[in-house]
Amino acid sequence: MLIVSACALIDRAGQVLLSKRPEGRAHAGLWEFPGGKAEPGEEPRTALIRELGEELGISTEESCLAPLTFEGEGELLLLLYVCRKYKGIPAPLEGQTLRWFDPGELLDQDLVPLDRPLAAAVRDLLS
């Protein structure tokens, strides 16, 4: 089973950060929640903290990651956490495009297919 941890990062204005996948990757040009694969033996929250540092240059603590929902397909399990408390300003460190969206705009975006139901859960949580 491949476990992927993703984050609905929420700013003080209540907007949610999405990342557009860069060219050359699967689902290039589609929006997704930041995050990534857990390494063998790595806990999902630990993997997400590592990925947020690598992808966005921000840091947070396990206690700041609240589990919201999950989706699965085949051997992939995608876990979504909500984070409102983090240090740093998100920056696109891996060639991706970043943008903050109002929760009501999330489902209007071209999302990676597994992220669509996650986006609905985030919208419902914040509206």
Automatic annotation (TrEMBL):
Residues spanning the membrane: none
PANTHER family recorded: 8-OXO-DGTP DIPHOSPHATASE, NUDIX HYDROLASE FAMILY PROTEIN
GO biological process: DNA repair; DNA replication
UniProt keyword annotations, A-Z: DNA damage, DNA repair, DNA replication, Hydrolase, Magnesium, Metal-binding, Mutator protein
GO molecular function, one term: 8-oxo-dGDP phosphatase activity
Organism expressing this protein natively: Parvularcula maris
Lineage, top ranks: Bacteria, Pseudomonadati, Pseudomonadota, Alphaproteobacteria, Parvularculales
Domain of life: Bacteria
Catalytic class of the enzyme: hydrolase
Family classification: Belongs to the Nudix hydrolase family.
Pfam family membership, one: NUDIX
Protein's recorded name: 8-oxo-dGTP diphosphatase
InterPro entries registered for this protein in UniProt: MutT-like, Nudix_hydrolase, NUDIX_hydrolase-like_dom_sf, NUDIX_hydrolase_CS, NUDIX_hydrolase_dom
